[in-house]
Amino acid sequence: MSASQSETVAHSDMGALRAELWEALGRRDEHTAVAAVIAALDKGVHPEEVLLGAIAAVQFRVGTEWASDRLTVAQEHAATAINERVIAAVACHPAAATPATAGHVTVACIDGEWHALPARLVAEVLRLRGWQVEFLGAHVPTHHLIAHIHQHDTDAVLLSSSLATRLPTAHATITACQAAGVPVLVGGAAFGADGRYARLLAADGWAADARGAARELERGLRRRQPNSAGVPSSPPTHRSDQEYTLVVRTKTQLIAATVTDLENSYPPMRAYTELQRERTAEDIAHIVDFLATALYIDDDGLFSTFVLWTADVLTARGVPAPALSSALRSLSAQLAEFPRTRRILRHAHEVMTTPDRVTVHAPGIPESPAAGTEEKK
Which of 2, 67, 194, 290 is in the most buried spot, having the most CB atoms within 10 Å? Predict the structure, then answer.
């Protein structure tokens, strides 16, 4: 089948394929989901179109439905697990067989990052483009990644992170790979929709999606040479300071004090069940994590946009916004001696209380959390 014929088939069938996949995921019907993509491939739809135009699109919808409280955590996990197996079926189809002639790359998720499906999609698209790809999966500790690239000759490392709270770890991993002389291409929601945090952390490249990653590799990444001290000649500027360090080190105390303050300032919380109290503490923990990350990169917008997203998610679950405002005021009082921290918290509170604010998608929060994580659940 010619490329034009394949494109026509793709356009005519992609909507139907997405609908069939979505229905199969809703029924937790793995066999039907796999059969649907195999049928599309057999009809001539290009594997890359199936991966990105169908599977990725449906996974995005899974995340959107979860955030709107129309899917439970269990349903989201089940759907993601099926989609992962559907991707494996595409990769094993004869239509996806491509000789590895372009080079050798390693694809991995940042230490602590459990959202592996986006990285898996990138890995499979690169294989289709002729790259030899070693996909290391979720949550790869930095020292194990460095040991791996020392043992295997790789042209580049592709790092994926969906959660912005992993940016400090991403910074350390980028620096370590560059010190080993291997360029780093990063991607995922954590690095910002425009890649601003990738540039801030001095990654060698950034891509918004799988096709963008392929284009960046085709252009060629400059391989950094370590200096005599074993570090890149121009290391990224480290943004951590006393405020960042304090927030990280006192996280447990900050959470406990904020929970106590909420009980006093938000009376409905006194009637919470133990499970509800645990969920509230988890939400506060995420707020503290994002506050620390905003301090690390000195970006008010990252935190305020996360707070807006959190407000929308909590509202969908029946928790009114004043509870979140009370949490921000509590943190501000506890961290009153730290000007950058108070500035970030004040900005978030001002943005959240703007009368005409709109629903947002937070930077560094994936629309579709992958199976195996309890982030923001």
Answer: 290
pLDDT in tens, 259-311: 999 988 888 888 888 888 888 899 999 999 999 999 999 999 999 999 998 88
Residue in 313, 365, 373 with CA at minimum distance from that of residue 60: 365
CA pseudo-torsion sign 364, 367, 370, 375:
positive
- Total Cβ atoms within 10 A of residue 361: 16
pTM of the model: 0.85
β-partners of residue 184 are 157
Closest Cα partner for 248 from 197, 291, 189, 299? Answer: 291
Question: What's the pLDDT tens digit per position in 13-41?
Answer: 788 999 999 999 999 999 999 999 999 99
CB 184 within 8 A of CB 161: no
The token pair that represents 107 in the structure block: 């694809």
Maximum CA pair distance of the chain? 69
CA distance 4 to 10: 10
